[in-house]
Specification:
Layout lengths: L1 H17 L1 E7 L2 H8 L5 E9 L8 H5 L6 E8 L6 H9 L9 E2 L2 E2 L5 E5 L2 H18 L6 E4 L4 E2 L13 E4 L2 E4 H12 L1 H9 L8
Parallel strand pairs: 6-7
Antiparallel strand pairs: 1-3, 1-6, 2-3, 2-8, 4-5, 9-10
Helix pairs in contact: 4-5
Amino acid sequence: MRTFIILLSLIFAPLAARADTAILAGGCFWCVEANFESVPGVSDVISGYTGGHVDNPTYDDVTSETSGHFEAVKITFDPARVSYADLVRLFLHSTDVLDDTGQFCDKGESYRSAIFVKDAGQRAAAEAGIAQAEAELGRKVVTRILPAQTFWKAEAYHQNYYKGTGWVITRRGPKRQADAYAFYRKACGRDQRVKALWGDKAEFLH
């Protein structure tokens, strides 16, 4: 049995070694999660909170704008299939990098855009991505590059919200969760603004 376990560890260790993580804040984490779960090479995307000073924050803590946290996602990916630099490019081209007050219809500190870097390599890639975005737009990008901090997983009902099947109450009455997400995304103007800003370089348009 012990030999079998060792053999399994040798087989799966290279797979585990290839996994890396990225933490990105781009406004509503439902939308960022939905975007990046479609990327080949991404194995997991978790909605959560980071960058603040409150331990185990709740959604109410974060949206009250008193915790210092950003709505963010933690992306697990295989660098052999998609690079960190590619994730940064996709992120920048799917957010409003000129808005320092939030993202789209969501305003406040918790909705600002940021790239949370865990080492010098990620910082260099983030800086290069922002420099390229500024060259493409001819404008200063306000997306922050911040050191990675503890990432707190959001409440269960926020995970995979965009494909949920339960019923929720919206301004247009009861809707299936996936339909409520689609309604919110359109009403918030996310895709319209991304298209207007980035043109044919826009990513994740719905």
